[in-house]
Amino acid sequence: MAHMDTAFVFDLDGTLIDSVYQHVLAWQEALDAEGIELSAWRIHRKIGMSGGLFTNMLVRETQLDINPELLGRLRKRHAEAYHRQAGKLRALPGAKELLAHLTGAGIPWTIATSGRMETAAPALEILGVDLERVKVVTRDQVKYAKPDPDLFLTAAERLGVDIQSTIVVGDSIWDTLAAQRARALSVGLLCGGYGEDELQRAGAFRVYEDPADLLRHLDEVGGRR
Fold it and tell me: What residue intervals traverse the membrane (predicted)?
């Protein structure tokens, strides 16, 4: 039987970078500027999904007439508000060490995020990701984002690995649902605010606290050479 080498695809916000709540506050500021009231907890539950689904959520939960011009302004306001909080971003415990360990062990890895490069760039810089070497996939580069599988399928293709031997690591149910649809295994992390039961119900076969906890148990998910 042929041996299948494991590769890793990581979500970014809430998985490697402690940025979920900065995104929530930035979206709330953008919505407030347009006179749209939406509770922070409702925004948090949608972080990580595609912009299209976020739009559908706004329509359902606010019953407003959402037009392309408004969406463009919201996205711009969100990016501006998020960049003002960039100084508060931190790598989650063990994130840099986990990526360094995989690199040193010769285990392929990359990052696939529903964020566009305009908002992903500060987080990637904090992690020290060299975009010349790491084939990061952002929302700008695929037709659909999570929970559609496009981000993860594209990431596996760029790594040159079989999606079925890929471990998708994420903090939200949107990550695990997209991983299932891509036919990849998924690992959930609690550091983005979702509970263990939620992640497991969405398809995560292992759940850990944060990247440091995953690094300590990496052999459990096939992360060895």
Answer: none
